[in-house]
């Protein structure tokens, strides 16, 4: 409501609003990503290194920024945005493994456009890569690498780095913000046309006397 009023007064352009909205939300999103992230990360005993924790917090922050960017596209329909995210959660590779997803719609294309896929894979790679675990199924002294667990258990694509997952998520942030910019600009052009058409139809409609 504030943006629409100030936009009608000519205070700033739509692009300035989108950039300002993005920059102003970064400190808040960073705090609500870092504080719960610190509690959860060390509470469950994940790898205790600065590099792994930095990646964890950064991935959590980018995911939060992406969710906000996605929801900005549905300012007048929060239920729609939540429903789309719900569909993405179902086929993100957590509740059902990628190979168990039906190919039609759920895997192609939804699995590959779901940001949960890349967020989950980033978290998995950050924790399992470089570790070795005992493998009692193969014998008392046998072991299994974290990379093998990622491939065989979680069915994670290990053909690229965990930093690529963050880069993909950041690209989605830019894409959703650009879509939001386009939606706002399109709304500014379409709404006056609709109002003009509705007004002209009211003027030309015949008056029936009873």
UniProtKB/TrEMBL annotation:
Q: Which UniProt keywords apply?
A: Membrane, Transmembrane, Transmembrane helix, Transport
Q: Name one Pfam family in it.
A: ABC2_membrane
Domain spans labelled ABC-2 type transporter transmembrane: 2-128
Which Gene Ontology molecular-function terms are recorded?
A: ABC-type transporter activity
- Which top-rank group of organisms is this from? Eukaryota
Protein's organism: Linum tenue
Locations listed in the record: Membrane
Cellular component GO terms held in the UniProt record: membrane
Q: How does it sit in the membrane?
A: Multi-pass membrane protein
The protein depicted here goes by the name: ABC-2 type transporter transmembrane domain-containing protein
Keyword Transmembrane in the entry? The reply is: yes
Q: Which InterPro entries match?
A: ABC2_TM, Plant_ABCG
Similarity section: Belongs to the ABC transporter superfamily. ABCG family. Eye pigment precursor importer (TC 3.A.1.204) subfamily.
TM region(s), chain numbering: 26-44, 56-84, 166-187
